[in-house]
What does this fold into?
Amino acid sequence: MAALYNEIDPYPAQWLRNLIKAGLIPDGEVNTHSIVDLRPSDVAGFQQVHLFAGIAGWSQALRLAGWPDDRPVWTGSCPCQPFSVAGKGAGVDDARHLWPHFHRLIAACRPPVVMGEQVAGKAGYGWFDGVRVDLEADRYACRAADIPALAVNAPHIRQRLYWVATDLENADRWHGKCGSVTSPSSCDMADTRCEQRSKRCESRSPTENGTDRSEENIYNQRCSDGDMEDANGIGWAHGEYAQNGRKAKTVNQSSSGDCSFWSDAIWLAGADGKARRVKSGVRLLANGVPARVGRLRAYGNAIVPPLAAEVVKALMETLDV
It folds into this structure.
């Protein structure tokens, strides 16, 4: 099969099966074993291996970037709880620190390209230091970029550390022009691609009927019911979310210069005493949302595919493929 999706949580695991059945992600096998128990033989033979697959954010990002389904790649967003400021701060001593098992499989199978994501900030940088030491000892070139979701016009920050690694010893396994990769420095991803995108109100492309055509790719025009179905057949961009997505694409022509998504925002005070700007009409609680526990857990652990797609595009440009 083309892909292996490893996900221990039953709800997103079923979601993945629905996505495969709908043809929205590459055909493949869903494996629900813990990565701790995975052996190299379990992941060998697949063109793509997505560990901690969640709801297929990396698979969606690869397709958005134009990465062929049959091009080898591994992805994985290791659990952030050991390093997140919202966690206990146990770091590498936390049982959920699963990078050593991810690394064990990489070292045994030597995929030509590995991509991942982790929390940003001091904790994430410290985590990546260890990742880089491990991978460069195995002759992989590694680089990372700290970028927010708003860099692709998403209406939230969600700052994350995205990283890539390419196998220097087996460059010919890349289905392209990886032979030019001869040193870690040659695989560096320039941050300049995202510098301007990080501005909240970047300049936009010409519009058509009041809609920013550049953002059609960001939302991938997937706002129909049933799209990116979850474990209950509920769409990833279903219902109210889809409507908000369309609203977000309307270009604001006012003289204030504010981004369109926030043009009618309101401020609400939270239990912590802080006020936050929210989209008008968006409910803060999930009452009335079908299967809300499973869906919210899946959403909360997901990456932002259009943002990851920019990382994939940068890598493809760097490797000239």
